[in-house]
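Appendix B. Chain record.
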Amino acid sequence: MKVAYFTMEIGLSENLPTYSGGLGILAGDHVKSSADLGVPLVAVTLLYKRGYFVQNLTPDGDQLELYPLFDPRAFMEPLPLKIRLNLYGRTVAVGVWKHNYKGMKSSVPVYFLDTDLSDNTEEDRLITQYLYGGDDHTRITQEAVLGIAGPQVLKRLGEKVSTYHMNEGHAAFLTLHLLNELGDIDAVRNLCVFTTHTPVPAGHDTFSYDLAREALGDFLPANIKELAGTDKLNMTLLALNLSRHANGVSELHGQVSREMFPGYDIGHVTNGVHHLTWTGPEFKNLFDQFMPHWREYPEVLATAHRIPDELLVQAKLKAKRRLINYVNSFTNAGLSEEFLTVVFARRAAAYKRATLFFSDMERLLNLSKVRVQFIFAGKAHPKDGAGKELIKEIIHEGMRYEGRLKLVYLENYAMWLGALLTAGSDIWLNNPRRPREASGTSGMKVCFNGGINMSVQDGWWREICRHRGNGWAIGDDEDTPDEETSQDFYDVLEDAVNTYYVNQAKWINIMKNSIAECCPYFNTHRMVKEYAEKFYL
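Structure tokens predicted for this chain:
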């Protein structure tokens, strides 16, 4: 009996453009640790032949979106199987591709659903072409393909499923498919578990019932409003009402989720990262030498203080050199491996507040003058005008103070670049407005590479942060004015700069604490074991 993991996106490698960001990377890491640990799991997602998008930035900072065609044949095999769905009163054929992810103990099959078939109309062939690229009409049809065709694929392939794990509400239509098949709400609940990743109401998918009935017709049960909300079809409510367990992805996010959906028993399993994917070669070699069982048991990284100081510093310098060489070769920015390197890399969205960085330019310029350099990266959603303006503003500030401020914005933030940035950064900066970051995972990757977090205490960082012990905390909550938060940020950054250049022994100790205190827990081996013990068994 297997766990069937349903996710709208999945990031297994940079060669498979079937993810946009954190949700997809988390899903890929979940699959990888399941394979390493021997957890019997299969994954179901959609095949996006034009992916999310490739980001190009003009010299003036405008974001251009490109959608190159992805040929999956080098990475997966087409299966001789088709599922037929009734959508908008017409038959839509769904094909299946299989990618086998091989881990240390087992393999996890990942099934990609594809409507780009000659059986379909031109319109229907586009259903699975773009990730997060359409309107509600496109979104509901994509979610119908995932949630309705997905379980049928598993049944036709003979996969015996004991638990369906919905990674976010996108897959919630599978509960209605099971309800149509089993005819019993309790039986459906007994089969399903649900993870929500979204701490703001706007992030939860809702559809008008008129659209839902137009798209899905008689597939919707007569009591749909009791299951999914009276005003609109809320995919999160549907999943909550038809699951035996539900969880957020950090302690704080679990609390926020219970406040958003009162009356529901929503726990939490804090996210992690797949340590073997996100630890760079420099630190893999170091850990192999001093903690040889870390690959199978990342918890042994709690003994990181046994690493000699000079070897830790050398490994960090090598990782940083890889990053700086890449940046300089593509941007001619003239960054130095000797400078304290601060990285801010994440989706360009207003609540992440990248431009708090510029609220006191004189203070920032003074810090930069004492050998501090800044690297930014991140995509804005194609329809997010405010996010695009954030990118433009950051680039313009760098141009405005050229010669006085070492700042560069790297285009096309993706898995490979994320790995390079998390390996090479000295400080990983994160200042969202709390509590709008459900968990965050990029900062966890930094810890596996001897980097140090400087972050608002939101998501995962709130659970482990020891200010000036294993990183730095930026003071903030929902009601703190941005001006106050920015001043605290400058105070904290100045303290970090002084520590880096004046007190190397303390800096090295914080690096070791970052590894020893964060890595043993914030990894997907621990996370998957927790899901198995709490929800799967």
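Further analysis of this model is presented in Appendix C.
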